[in-house]
Amino acid sequence: MSDTAHFWQHVPHQHRGPHQHEGADDHIYSPKLHNGTFKAQGIATFMGAPYCPPDRDAIRAMGAKVCFIGVPWDQGQVVRAGTSQGAAGIREASTQYFPYMFEYDVDLLTFFRVVDCGDIPIVPGNNDKSHAYIYHYLTECLHGGAKVVLCGGDHSVPIPGARALSDFHKSGRIGYLHVDCHLDAAPDWAGNAFTNCSGPSRALDLPNCNARNMVHMGSRNGLNPKDWHDFFVDNEVRLIPMQELVARGVVECTREIFTRAWDGTDGVYFSWDTDSIDSSCMPGTTAPECFGLKGREIIQLARAAGTFGADIMEVSELCPKFDVSHISIKTAALMIYHFLGSRAKTLRDRGQQP
């Protein structure tokens, strides 16, 4: 036996993720290595992608066009806690899928050269410092030439996220999309202006985010105080409540919100709260509600959104601990997969590169 037969490798043998399959067709067909998807989770990254430090030079060097990054942040929350585990849940769910999507005939991993930039550090009890870290890490990803899939974390995450995008496009304009069960337009919550229910309010504070490029979709039920609704009415921000979404259809409404967000703008922030989904399909979220998007509609929304694209796609409020079936984390992962798959097909059909 060779002296090197049992030589220790930096990546343990238990983790033979998709990024270690180097053949031209290895991501499209069934795995050739013994350990991989469905075998042993090993060191979990989103989609089995390689790890890349959240540094603009490292991202450029790897040629990454999509960065997945997690935010284990739960202290901007005003309802039940648990969303700090959202990113870990999505990574776990992604081990149950291949990067190839036959609906679009695309290998997401190689088309976008996806990397996982790990989790943004947070400072317990310090909202300002933690938001500063989120802003800094997203800025590095954007300046690295990549689009970002951002997984929270509570819904205060888009406050520093949209600010990072605003500064990245400081000489232009940005659009802001908010798909949520809740309007989240509190001017403040008992004096705190940076909670999970203040995202749209803080987005409109940005100097290059105009009300005509902001849209909210999916709101319903009784956790929406009058002052939140007044924000949209007084500022003439387009609001598509769930009643209208049901009447008109998901695809038509999704096309409207993205058309508005991209009208004359240089970039778009797409914030997708998991509680926009019906509680029967998404029990693992911070504030589950009935009369939301159903499973088929979730994918329809993701597919329609992918034809437009976004600089940052953020999935928030995912709470794996409230769903022992794990269907919530799988649904959240598929939201991202179908968004990226649709985006890849759209670019390829246009003869464009990501």
What does this structure look like?
- By secondary structure, the chain is α/β, with parallel strands linked by helices.
- It has one domain (52-182, 200-349): Ureohydrolase domain (Arginase, Chain A).
- It is 35% helix and 14% strand.
- The protein is built from eleven helices and ten strands.
- It has helices at 56-62, 86-94, 108-112, 127-143, 158-168, 199-205, 226-235, 242-248, 250-262, 295-308, 327-349, and strands spanning 66-71, 100-101, 106-107, 115-119, 147-152, 174-179, 209-217, 238-240, 267-273, 312-316.
- It has an eight-stranded parallel beta sheet with strand order 4-1-5-10-9-6-7-8, sandwiched between helices.
- Helix 2 (86-94) crosses helix 11 and helix 10 runs parallel beside helix 11.
- The longest helix has 23 residues, at 327-349.
- It is globular and about 55 Å long.
Question: Quick gist of this model?
Answer:
By secondary structure, the protein is α/β, with parallel strands linked by helices.
**Beta-strand content:** 5-15%
- Level of helix content? 25-40%
**Order of helical and strand elements:** HEHEEHEHEHEHEHEHHEHEH
Q: What sort of overall outline do the alpha carbons produce when their principal axes are compared? A: globular
CATH architecture: 3-Layer(aba) Sandwich
Q: How many β strands by DSSP? A: 10
Top-tier CATH class:
Alpha Beta
Structural class comes to alpha/beta
User: Domains counted in the coordinates: how many?
Assistant: 1
User: What spatial order of strands do you see in the largest sheet?
Assistant: 4-1-5-10-9-6-7-8
* Count of DSSP-assigned helices: 11
